[in-house]
Design goal:
It comes from Saccharothrix syringae (Nocardiopsis syringae). This protein has 215 residues and is of the alpha/beta class. It is built from nine helices and five strands. Helix content is 57%, strand content 11%. The radius of gyration is 17 Å and the shape is globular. It binds adenosine-5'-diphosphate and thymidine-5'-diphosphate. The site of adenosine-5'-diphosphate (ADP) has 15 residues, from helix 2, helix 7 and helix 9.
Length: 215
């Protein structure tokens, strides 16, 4: 009988706030390797719709914050079920651009506004409790000024409200890591040049082996 523990791929999530370099680093990791770069949104009709909505208004897209967050989480489940899990089972390593930790942190910010922090975390812990944790999270972090410069260069603007949301999301991610230290995380200072950041990301993934996999 095949031992899927020995043959399945690794799930590596590249996380952090927008502008920190997730897509750039995830693409660099996947290129030239056999790993698959997983998209943030699913190819189901609701995933496509959500992707379009985020492009128009990255942070507040619905009148119900709970409804909005559940849609994001529903599509994260869909990405996992339709793309990540089958590839892992087939032995392919998957690199997610914005994965487990960022999804948790962003929804915590949005849900806390509606439910308060205790209920928000309770709901998130229950929902995320049904997903496996990644084998490795690469948590990219950068300073506010660097993030603003990169987002202005990339998107043409970055207002204070967006930066404030990102700061909240960053703090939520750190709280999640401290509260439930179940994720294997490498934190990477993304203020530095792309070459240095990418080299550190490659280094962090190189040592991954069976002993670090989910049981
Ligand atoms: N280490 C880096 N140094 C300089 N520019 C970077 C670095 N990482 C990313 N960038 C640039 O910053 C912008 C945001 O990067 P991106 O990968 O799109 O971030 P994210 O996916 O986290 O939103 C892009 O224009 C990218 O080229
Ligand atoms: C509105 C909302 C956005 N998000 C996330 C999805 C988007 O990837 C992110 C902000 O949008 P975007 O600027 O497109 O992010 P990035 O530059 O990292 O690709 O916020 C949530 O997770 N929950 C939410 O409720």
């Amino acid at each position: 009988m095949a031992d899927d523990y020995l043959t399945r791929g690794l799930w590596i999530c590249v996380d952090g706030v927008e502008g920190v370099g997730k897509s750039t680093v995830a693409r660099a990791l996947a290129s030239g390797s056999a790993a698959h770069l997983a998209t943030e949104f699913s190819s189901a009709p609701f995933g496509r719709a959500l992707e379009g909505a985020v492009r128009t208004a990255p942070h507040f897209i619905a009148s119900s914050e709970v409804g909005q967050s559940l849609v994001f989480l529903g599509d994260f489940y869909e990405v996992y079920a339709s793309e990540v899990a089958p590839l892992l089972a087939g032995g392919t390593t998957v690199i997610s651009d914005r994965g487990y930790l960022s999804k948790y942190a962003y929804q915590e910010v949005v849900l806390t506004g509606a439910l308060g922090d205790t209920a928000a975390r309770g709901l998130l812990d229950a929902i995320f409790g049904h997903l496996p944790t990644p084998d490795l999270t690469l948590h990219l972090v950068a300073s506010r000024n660097v993030l603003r410069e990169r987002l202005v260069a990339r998107d043409g603007e970055c207002d204070d409200a967006r930066l404030a949301f990102m700061a909240q999301a960053h703090r939520a991610a750190l709280r999640r890591l401290v509260r439930a230290p179940d994720l294997r995380v490498t934190t990477i200072d993304a203020d530095r040049s792309l070459d240095v950041v990418t080299a550190e990301a490659v280094h962090a993934t190189t040592g991954l082996d069976r002993s670090t996999r989910r049981s």
